């Protein structure tokens, strides 16, 4: 059975992919940027798979080479700034080094169990980037948002490997993102809190009064000049 599906890349361009299952084996491939061209390529590709011997999936593609190819493709095809490109680079390198420590040097050696154990490790990793963490000796674990972003990067890396036909499926396919807890309602000052603040405001009384009755941010209020007022 052959089907088409689409993805939108970083340049807001629609890309058509093909998905074919033959004798229980699944094949996926990037086809074209237009539906008409993709349908033609899908038919040609399906015919080739049905009536010719399929080429075996490369079993010894090095993880290091795959990572470099992914980063090169990312650099050429996306508009990521240096900051976010470095996040992709650090995240994939961290996972690659973890795989090497567990004697997995090729893509085919990266199992779902290895991917899941790495994800669990990151879920419990403590960060040292918290402000003045060295002073209070407290290093919190990585936030769910950070861990989920890393997971999306690694899933994207293995989607690229699948599109390049280096692997048949992603080892991260069954790894689910962490559910974020609700932050709850916003905190607000009570009438007694406001009275205490205003009574203690001193020379900042007028400044606090402006914030209270306009809702303007303190940074914006600080930049106000006489010419900004009318009347």
Structural description of this entry:
This protein has 231 residues and is mostly helical. It folds into three domains: 50 residues; 101 residues, no CATH class; 34 residues, no CATH class. It has nine helices and three strands, in the order βββααααααααα. Strands 1-2-3 form a three-stranded antiparallel β-sheet, covered by helices on one side. The longest helix has 20 residues. It starts with a strand and ends in a 9-residue tail after the last helix. The model has no long low-confidence stretch (mean pLDDT 84).
Strand order of the largest sheet: 1-2-3
Q: How many structural units, i.e. domains?
A: 3
Radius of gyration: 27 Å
Quaternary class: single chain
Query: Low-confidence parts, pLDDT < 50 over ≥5 residues?
Result: none
Strand content: 5-15%
- Class of secondary structure makeup: mainly alpha
By DSSP, the count of extended strands is 3
> Can you count the helices?
9
| Helix fraction bin | 40-55%
Shape: elongated
Termini separation comes to 74 Å
Main beta sheet, described?
A: 3 strands, antiparallel
Mean pLDDT: 84
SSE pattern, N- to C-terminal: EEEHHHHHHHHH
């Amino acid at each position: 059975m052959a089907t088409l599906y689409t993805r939108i890349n970083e340049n807001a361009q629609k890309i058509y992919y093909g998905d074919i299952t033959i004798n229980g084996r699944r094949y996926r491939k990037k086809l074209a940027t237009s539906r008409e061209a993709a349908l033609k390529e899908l038919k040609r590709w399906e015919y080739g798979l049905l009536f010719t011997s399929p080429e075996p999936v490369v079993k010894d593609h090095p993880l290091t080479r795959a990572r470099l190819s992914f980063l090169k493709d990312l650099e050429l095809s996306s508009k990521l700034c240096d900051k976010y490109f470095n996040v992709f680079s650090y995240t994939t390198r961290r996972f690659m080094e973890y795989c090497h420590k567990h004697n997995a040097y090729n893509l085919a050696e990266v199992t779902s169990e290895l991917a899941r154990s790495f994800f669990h490790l990151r879920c419990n990793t403590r960060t040292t980037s918290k402000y003045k963490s060295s002073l209070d000796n407290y290093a919190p674990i990585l936030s769910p948002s950070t861990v989920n972003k890393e997971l999306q990067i690694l899933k994207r890396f293995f989607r690229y490997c699948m599109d390049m036909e280096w692997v048949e499926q992603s080892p991260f396919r069954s790894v689910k993102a962490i559910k974020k807890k609700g932050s709850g309602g916003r905190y607000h000052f009570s009438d007694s809190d406001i009275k205490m603040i205003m009574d203690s405001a001193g020379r900042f009384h007028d400044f606090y009064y402006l914030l209270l009755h306009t809702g303007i941010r303190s940074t914006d209020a600080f930049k106000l000049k006489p010419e900004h007022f009318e009347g």
